[in-house]
Design goal:
Low-confidence stretches: 1-19, 313-328
Radius of gyration: 20 Å
Order of helices and strands: EEEEEEHEEEEEEHEHEEEEEEEEH
Helix content: 10-25%
Strand order of the largest sheet: 4-17-16-20-14-10
Structural class: mainly beta
Number of domains: 1
Strand content: 25-35%
C-alpha cells in the first residue's frame, strides 16, 4: 500500500490516512505495556525439561519470590518461551548465540566496584583484581557470552551501592552509555528481545544499532522496567530461579518485546538490527538476548564493514596483550 506524506512541524510526518508518525521516543516496557505477554516457559535443568505455566508469585520462598529447593549455581537454561503476539501463540526456542562482541565500554566502569558478570558462582568484575584475572577485557568477553545464551545463572550484575568505597564513583555519569553489544547475525523485525532482571525491580534501557554500529536516528529506545518498582512488579514473568551464594533471595524475572517496537510509530523504516547500546543507570542485573521462532543459523552474515573489521582487529589486539601480561 502506498501513502502520501505531508510534512508538518515538530519533526512529525502525517499520513493522509490520518496516521501520525513521530521522531524517536523512549518506550517503557512493563507488564501490559509494550511487552509481548508470556504464557509458558520451559527450562532445561540437569538435562530435564521443566515447564512453567504461570510465573512464580512474589509470596513464594518466604516472601522473596524464589522457588524453594532449587538453589544452586548449576545452569538453568530457558529452552522455550511461548508468547501471545496479538492473539497468536509464538514459540521462541532459538537464541542468537554466535558472534557477539562488546565494544565502546565506558572507561569509568574500570574504576567502579560492584559491576561485572556472574557466571555460575564466579564474579568477573570490571575493576581489575590484584591477580590480574578480571578487568575490562575479561568482563567484555564474559559479557558477550552472557548476552548470547539463556542461562539464568549467568548474568550481568550492577550492585554499586553494595560494593562502593568512599573513593569510588557511585555509578557511571548520567548520559554516558555503558557499552555496545554487536551481533554477527542480525535481528529481524520478526524477532524478539529477551530481558531478564534479578529481583525484577530495576530499569534498563537499550538503543537499536545498525550494521555499522551507529544508532537508528529515528527509532524508539526501549526502557525495560520503566522507572523501576517493587520486586517482580515491573517485569512480566518471575522464574523463581536465583543463584547460590549471591543474592539468593532475588530470582530472575523477565519480559519479552517485539523488535517492531523499535520502529513502531516512528519515521524509521524497519530494518535488521545488529546490536544494542546499553544504558544501565537503573543499576539493573540483567541477561539480554535476541530470541526467535526461527533459526539464526541460515541467516546471511553480511560482509564486515570497515567499522566491524577495525573492531575485531582491536579486540584481538587487546586480548593478545592480556594473554601476554601487558596492562590494558
Amino acid at each position: 500500500m502506498k501513502y502520501s506524506f505531508l510534512l508538518v512541524p515538530c519533526c512529525a510526518v502525517t499520513l493522509l490516512a490520518g496516521i501520525t508518525l513521530s521522531s524517536a521516543a523512549t518506550l517503557n516496557v512493563l507488564p501490559g505495556i509494550n511487552n509481548t505477554p508470556i504464557t509458558q516457559v520451559t527450562y532445561e535443568v540437569s538435562g530435564v525439561d521443566v515447564v512453567q505455566t504461570a510465573p512464580v508469585p512474589p509470596s513464594a520462598g518466604n516472601g522473596h519470590g524464589v522457588t524453594p529447593g532449587v538453589l544452586s549455581n548449576d545452569p538453568v537454561v530457558v529452552k522455550s518461551i511461548i508468547v501471545n503476539h496479538a492473539g497468536q501463540l509464538v514459540d521462541l526456542n532459538f537464541v542468537n548465540s554466535v558472534g557477539a562482541v562488546v565494544t565502546h565500554i565506558n572507561p569509568q566502569l574500570a574504576s567502579i566496584n560492584g559491576i561485572g558478570v556472574f557466571a555460575h558462582g564466579e564474579l568477573i568484575p570490571t575493576r581489575l583484581t590484584p591477580d590480574q584475572t578480571s578487568g575490562i577485557p575479561a568482563f567484555s568477553s564474559a559479557l558477550a557470552s552472557t548476552f548470547s545464551n539463556l542461562n539464568l545463572r549467568n548474568f550481568a550484575y550492577s550492585d554499586t551501592a553494595d560494593f562502593r568505597a568512599p573513593t569510588d564513583f557511585i555509578s557511571p555519569t548520567n548520559g554516558l552509555p555503558d557499552y555496545d553489544v554487536l551481533y554477527a547475525r542480525p535481528m529481524l523485525p520478526t524477532d524478539y528481545v529477551f530481558l531478564s532482571e534479578r529481583n525484577g525491580n530495576s530499569s534498563f534501557e537499550i538503543t537499536a544499532l545498525r550494521e555499522d554500529g551507529t544508532p537508528f536516528a529515528e527509532a524508539n529506545k526501549l526502557r525495560f522496567g520503566g522507572a523501576g518498582g517493587e520486586p517482580y512488579a515491573v517485569y512480566d514473568w518471575n522464574s523463581g530461579i536465583s543463584s547460590a551464594g549471591y543474592y539468593v533471595t532475588q530470582a530472575q524475572a523477565f519480559s519479552v518485546v517485539s523488535a517492531k517496537k523499535f520502529f513502531e510509530g516512528t519515521t524509521e523504516t524497519e530494518a535488521p538490527i545488529f546490536g544494542f547500546r546499553i544504558d544501565n543507570h537503573g543499576d539493573a542485573d540483567v541477561k539480554l538476548a535476541i530470541v526467535s521462532d526461527t533459526s539464526f543459523e541460515n541467516r546471511v552474515i553480511p560482509e564486515p564493514s570497515s567499522f566491524l573489521l577495525s573492531l575485531m582487529i582491536g579486540l584481538v589486539f587487546v586480548l593478545s596483550r592480556k594473554r601476554n601480561g601487558a596492562a590494558c
